[in-house]
Amino acid sequence: MRRSGPTDLRIDGRHRRTMRINRLSLTDWRNYETADVVFEPGANVLAGSNGQGKTNLVEAIGFLTTLGSHRVSGDAALVRAGAESAVIRATVSSADREVLAEVLINKVGANRAQLNRSAVRPREITRNVSSVLFAPEDLALVRGEPSARRRFVDELLVQRTPRLAGTVSDYEKALRQRNGLLRGSRGMVDTESLAVWDERLVATGTDLLDARTELLAALEPLVAEQYAVVAGADQRVAIEAQRTIDEEAAEGTTVERFTAALARVRRREIERGITLVGPHRDEVLLTVNGLPARGYASHGESWSLALALRLGAVELLRHALQTGDPIVILDDVFAELDEWRRIRLADRVARYEQVIVTAAVEADIPPALAGRVTRIRAGHVVDGEPEAAGPAAGDPADSLG
Which residues define the annotated binding site for ATP? Predict the structure, then answer.
C-alpha cells in the first residue's frame, strides 16, 4: 500500500498533483448521528455486514462530487430520521493544498456549502473534490433506461468541465418553460412565445449536444481499453450518441438540425403537450461486437461493460483534471465478480492515488487492495477509529450545522 509522500505524480511523462480525501465527518447523514473516518493514500477498505452503513459513507463522498446521490433522486432521504438537515465535512488534499469542504443538506430549502469556512455556492465544492463511484446500481448503465446513460454522460461532462453545469441547468430550465407553454396551450399555442423558447432550447441544447458528442468520442477508446482489461476478451466495444434531432436530417450544423427537428414535430408536440426532440430524449447506444448491450449482453458482459464505463471515466478525468486522479470508489463490487475478474479489476485500480472499497466479506478483497481497514457496525465506526476531531474537522455548531 502506498504511504503519504510527495504531492505529485507522473502520468505519461507529465507531473501531476494528487488528490485524496484525508478525513470524512458526518452529522445526521443517513443512519449516522455522527461519524468520523480517516483515509490514507492507496487502498482503504470499509468492512461490515450488509445494512450497517458502508455504502452510506461512500455515498457521502460521491455527493461532494456530484451534489447528488447514486441511489435516490431527492435529498430528503439523505437526512437521518428525526433530523432536519445533514452535514458532510471532508478535508481533501487537492493539487498542492488541503481544503475543508462542507455541505449542509436540508430536507426543506436550499443546501449550503463552505470551503475553508467561507460560504460558496454548492457547485464550487465539486471543483475541489472529484470521485468516480462504481456500485451494483451501475448495471442500469447497461441494462436500464436511456435516462441512466444520459445522467452518466452529463455528470462526467460537469466533472471534466465544471462550467458545463450551467449549460445543463440552462437547458433544463428552457425545457421546463417550453413544456409548460405546450401543456397550457390546449391545442392553441402562442406561436410568438413558443418561438422564443424554441430559440433558447436550441441555443442551450446545441451546446449540450456538441459537448456530449466530443466527450463520447474521447471516452469510447478508453472504455474499450478498460473492457479488454476487466473482461480479458477480444471484443469490440463501441459507444454511439443517437440524437433525436438526427432522425431525419443527416446534414447541417447542430443548430440547423435542432431547428428543423422542432419544426418537424411541432404538430405532435402541441397535441401531446411535451417537447419530443432534444438532449433529454437522446440515447447513448452501447454495443459489444456490433450488438446492443441492452438486451444482448450476458450478465458477465454487462458487469464488465459497466465497470469499463466507470474506469474509462477515471482515465478521462485523471488526464483532464489539474487536481490529479479522482478518488476511485468500489462499493460492494467484488461480491458480484468471479475471482478472475476480481483480480483483474484490483490490479487495474490499485495504481490510482486513492481507492476506497466496501465489502461485507473482507476475504473478497484481492491482495492488491489490501489497505487500511475500517469496520462499520450499525452506523458506527467500531475499530480503527480516528482520534477525536481536531480543528480541521471542526464541530457542526461552528459552521454549517
Answer: 48-55
Instruction: Give the pTM.
Output: 0.87
Give CA–CA dist 358/154, Å, rounded: 26
Q: How confident is the model at residue 187 (pLDDT cuts 50, 70, 90)?
A: low
**Residue 196: what pLDDT?**
94
Mean of pLDDT over the chain: 88
pLDDT at 188: 74
Contacts of 177 (CB under 8 A, 6+ apart): 197, 200
* Residue 121 located in a structural domain: yes
Question: What average pLDDT does this structure show over 336-343?
Answer: 86
Binding residues: 48-55
Establish if 309 belongs to a structural domain: no
Phi, psi at 265, each rounded to 5°: -105, 10
C-alpha cell at 179: 413544456
Is 21 inside any structural domain?
A: yes
Beta strands in 190-253 (DSSP E): 237-242
Q: Which residues contact 235 (CB under 8 A, 6 or more apart)?
A: 227, 228, 288, 289, 301
Q: Is the model more confident about 15 or about 287?
A: 287
Asked whether residue 196 is domain-assigned, the answer is yes
Considering only CA atoms, which of 336, 216, 212 is closest in space to residue 281? 212
Q: Which CA distances in Å does 20 have to 23, 289, 363?
A: 9, 37, 25
The count of structural domains within the chain is 1
Q: Are 182 and 273 in contact (CB under 8 A)?
A: yes
The answer to whether the beta carbons of residues 104 and 87 sit under 8 Å apart is yes
Query: Would you state the cell numbers that stand for residue 320, as one nine-digit string?
Result: 483532464
Q: What is the pLDDT of residue 337?
A: 84
Residue 393 pLDDT greater than 50, yes or no: no
**Residue 355 sits in a domain of what CATH number?**
3.40.50.300
CA angle 325, 330, 335 (to 5 degrees): 155
Give Cα 122 distance to the centre of its chain.
Answer: 16
Distances (CA, A) of 229 to 100, 292, 328, 345: 36, 20, 17, 8
**Domain span at 388:** 8-138+160-213+244-273+322-398
Distance CA 399, CA 394 (A): 8
